[in-house]
Specification:
Blueprint lengths: L1 H36 L15 H13 L16 H29 L1
Amino acid sequence: MKNTFNNTFKTGLILSTALLTGALAITAAFTQGKAETSMNIASVTISAKRMTAEQKLAYDTADNLAQNVTHTVLISAKRLTAQEKMAIDMEDQVVRQQLAEKTASLKHIQG
């Protein structure tokens, strides 16, 4: 009789421990997800002005002359409207066309 009681007690203790461990694991799994969503998300601001080809060349040249200079970059941006995107695309197309014409005229002069 005493042996049966010990076996029942041990079985109950093992099942209780397993149940408690399972409950803690489930609680921990759902708690971790909540902790991650409550964190603040950092926002990033990106801004830049459009540079001409001459400005880009001057910037690159100055950068090559001063090799050990540390640059600080502040970047901010805004969502462009469809009209702004179209205007930028048209401007890029004009610049590419002018570059192609200059390249063709240089090849014509060299060739």
